[in-house]
Amino acid sequence: MKKYCPGTLQVCLAAIILWFAPTPARAEIPPPIRHLLEAAAARDAKTENKKDYLKTALLLATDAYPGLGAELAAFAASLAGGASTAAVSPSPPPPPAAGIKAEKTHGPRSLLDRLGFSGDIQLGGSLTSGNTDERAVTGMLNLRHQKGAWKNTFGLDLGFTRTMGVTSKQRFVADYKLDYRYSTRAFVFGYLQYEDDRFSGFDFRTSESAGIGYQLVRRQTMHLSLEGGPALRQDRLDTGNMPIIGGRFENEVGGRLNSEFEWLVLGNATLLNRNSFFIGSERATLDTVTSLKMKINSRLSGVLSYDLQWDNNVPEGKKQVDTVTRFTFQFNF
């Protein structure tokens, strides 16, 4: 199969996103929110309360629909009898994360927060002695930056295990995603991933994809989004000490479908599920992660997760399914 340079695709991702993006449509204020603002304005007019009810209603409406901040402020200003928007408009909230509502924090803002960055670090490990001597370490880093309609997401995932003095697991995954949100629910994206799993039968994998996504469910306690589009992937099979020869490096053309679900089950418990399905000319793969996050305080959480990876066409002697169960502590910043 013909080889090509993955770097060319990486340079073109931003251009692909702009090509896919439709002309932004003006968002409409939901009727219940319009009625709420109208009722608040009427109460202010009746009680001569200097627009205190309207200010409160606008603040709550903007928190619930952050993507409609400009429309809500303009409508509230019109209800206030032509007063300036500043008279009734609250301070603009930070833009929400795509698909997931950002948690609010209190107190002084950190340097990363002031620069528009947010994210989390997860760390975990285990130590077993006696009949079995095993040491395991796992860690993840997620970093997000959003400015206007554009959002950048960086991720790192590391897992390392030694059993009876021999390395039995070593996996490293790095990814980058660029989103452009052209409405309150729809967005286009570009995605890059590098995976190095020394015990999967592959030396490494790289993939590039672009497409469109839509947020199907957007509630205060539940979010569900789907995204998909064309994709390319490069695999180099594990040959040990043998040189890489013809046929050991594979290029695939296919498609990728992702889903992300988050549900606030209780006040401090959140259920998350993320799926990534790739189907190509050589093989199909599925990576699904289900986790339960228990919030300890505003910054610290405990996370129990189950990761399943499936590949329908693995090298000889390798299994099609790999699973990892882990408990980590997550620190939000």
Quickly describe the structure:
The chain is α+β, with helices and mostly antiparallel strands. 19% of the residues lie in helices and 50% in strands. The chain is elongated, with a radius of gyration of 24 Å.
Written description of the protein model:
This protein is of the alpha+beta class and 333 residues long. The chain folds into two domains: 1-93, no CATH class; 103-332, Porin (Beta Barrel), CATH 2.40.160. The chain contains six helices and twelve strands. A twelve-stranded antiparallel beta barrel has the order 1-2-3-4-5-6-7-8-9-10-11-12. A hairpin with a 3-residue loop joins strand 9 and strand 10. The longest helix has 17 residues, at 31-47. The model is unreliable at 1-11, 82-106 and 241-247 (pLDDT under 50).
